[in-house]
Request: fold
Amino acid sequence: MKKLLLIICLIVTSAISANAQFHIELGINGNSPQGDFRDTYDLGIGSYVEPKYAISENLDLGLLIGRNVFGGVDDDIKAASSLNILPTGTYRFSTNNVTPYVGAGLGLYFFDFGSVLGEESTSTEFGFAPRAGVYIGRLNLGVAYNVVKDLNFLQYNLGIRILSRD
Reply:
């Protein structure tokens, strides 16, 4: 399913990449588990791709596809990973070179918990991710809070827009 989703995204990207209203953001992130999730898992890293379509000068709709890995807090707990697929909305407060933004995503998180005391498990959860940050040219510096049942995590993003309208 992951490969099929990637192929669909690539086809859509190539079909409309010539359109000035379309752009893609690629990025990396650091993750900090919160609440009960922090009791079992430690800091994590990840990456994401987010194709976006500008429906106005200040408003973009997109599809965020992200992959995150979290380390276990001790040797008995192996790393956990998540695949996030979230339709998103982003509002930029201006069209200047440096502009703050707010946004949110709403969608599915597919978790794989590796091995916790010898038992492996997976979980699919519905989640919400409010976010805010600043665009500096094509660079994105942002933060998102992923609210996913009892698997919440704070995410620090560093991204770059390619195939950009700017």
